[in-house]
Amino acid sequence: MKYETKTTISYPTVGPAGKTGTWRDFRPELDESKCSKCLLCWALCPEGAIERLEDNSVLIDYDYCKGCGICANECPKDAITMAREE
Ligand code: SF4
Ligand code: SF4
């Protein structure tokens, strides 16, 4: 599945509680060698915490990722795994 470049998506900003990444117990870790650049994680992250780069690779914004695990559960290539935060 491919998404148009201008697909509507929200972007996280600092709220009254600060950066929401501090709420996280588990951290998504991306193995770029497995990623097919399908952008499913980017489209499904409820926090808008996955950034899409020019070449459709993805970056996780740990300032705002809450560690919900949706990206890891939905990735068709098992390129994202959840690890407990230290
Ligand atoms: S869902 Fe998985 S394969 Fe698709 S862009 Fe995200 S990390 Fe890559
Ligand atoms: S763990 Fe949840 S909040 Fe963090 S990048 Fe994945 S889908 Fe987004």
Task: Characterize the structure shown.
With 86 residues, the chain is an alpha+beta fold. It has a domain of 48 residues: Alpha-Beta Plaits. Helices cover 12% and strands 19% of the residues. It is built from two helices and four strands; from the N terminus they run βαββαβ. The protein has a two-stranded antiparallel ribbon with strand order 1-4. A two-stranded antiparallel ribbon has the order 2-3. The model has no long low-confidence stretch (mean pLDDT 89). Bound molecules: iron/sulfur cluster (SF4) (2 copies). The site of one iron/sulfur cluster has 13 residues, from α1.
Summarize this entry quickly.
This protein is α+β, with helices and mostly antiparallel strands and 86 residues long. The protein has helices at residues 40-44, 70-74, and strands spanning 26-30, 50-52, 58-60, 80-84. The model has no long low-confidence stretch (mean pLDDT 89).
Topology:
Layout: E1 26-30, H1 40-44, E2 50-52, E3 58-60, H2 70-74, E4 80-84
Antiparallel strand pairs: 1-4, 2-3
This protein binds iron/sulfur cluster (2 copies).
